[in-house]
């Protein structure tokens, strides 16, 4: 009885009207929660699809860069091999010329220099470019509910 009087005083409603109002408010609240859940689910599905496309693109780029580095290193090793075993080994002294047309180095150890440059290039690639880091939430991974 006191509840009914308070409901009437506060809301100006009878018991049946108050029950209808409360039921409608609960339905509206539930509808809002379901809409928010749908929007969040749509966003998470989009984010998962987007991340998959980004990973595929990065995978392709990684393969292209990997094979380019392998090619450059192989060419450097091949050139150094050809320099080591060239037929015209003239025991000439090392000469370095710097001019308007560029730098010219003629030496019997040029093959070693090319080999060292190729291997340093490969080492830098392996240490700084090639490492794979796992995708975790700290790095910006998706968070689920």
Keywords:
7% strand, mainly alpha
Brief summary of the model shown:
The protein has helices spanning 2-11, 15-84, 110-129; strands at residues 95-99, 102-106.
Describe how the helices and strands are arranged:
Elements: H1 2-11, H2 15-84, E1 95-99, E2 102-106, H3 110-129
* Gap between N and C termini: 43 Å
Shape: rod-shaped
Largest sheet: 2 strands, antiparallel
On the 0-100 scale, what is the average pLDDT?
77
Count the DSSP helices.
3
The structural domain count equals 1
Helical percentage: 55-70%
Estimate the strand proportion: 5-15%
Radius of gyration: 36 Å
What structural class should be given to the helix and strand makeup? Answer: mainly alpha
Order of helices and strands: HHEEH
Strand arrangement within the widest β-sheet reads 1-2
| Overall strand count | 2
Q: Please mark out the parts with pLDDT under 50 across 5 or more consecutive residues, or reply none.
A: none
Kindly describe this structure.
The chain is mainly alpha-helical. It has one domain (2-139). Helices cover 69% and strands 7% of the residues. Helix 2 (15-84) runs antiparallel to helix 3 (110-129). The chain is rod-shaped, with a radius of gyration of 36 Å. The two termini are 43 Å apart.
């Amino acid at each position: 009885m006191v509840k009914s009087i308070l409901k009437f005083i506060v809301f100006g409603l009878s018991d049946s009207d108050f029950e209808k109002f409360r039921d409608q408010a609960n339905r509206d609240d539930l509808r809002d929660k379901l809409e928010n859940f749908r929007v969040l689910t749509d966003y998470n599905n989009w984010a998962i699809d987007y991340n998959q496309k980004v990973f595929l693109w990065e995978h392709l780029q990684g393969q292209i860069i990997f094979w380019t580095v392998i090619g450059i290193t192989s060419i450097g090793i091949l050139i150094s091999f050809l320099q080591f075993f060239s037929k015209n080994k003239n025991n000439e002294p090392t000469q370095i010329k710097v001019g308007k047309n560029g730098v010219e180095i003629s030496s019997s150890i040029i093959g070693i220099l090319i080999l060292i440059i190729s291997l340093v290039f490969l080492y830098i690639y392996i240490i700084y470019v090639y490492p794979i880091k796992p995708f975790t939430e700290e790095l910006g991974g998706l968070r689920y509910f």
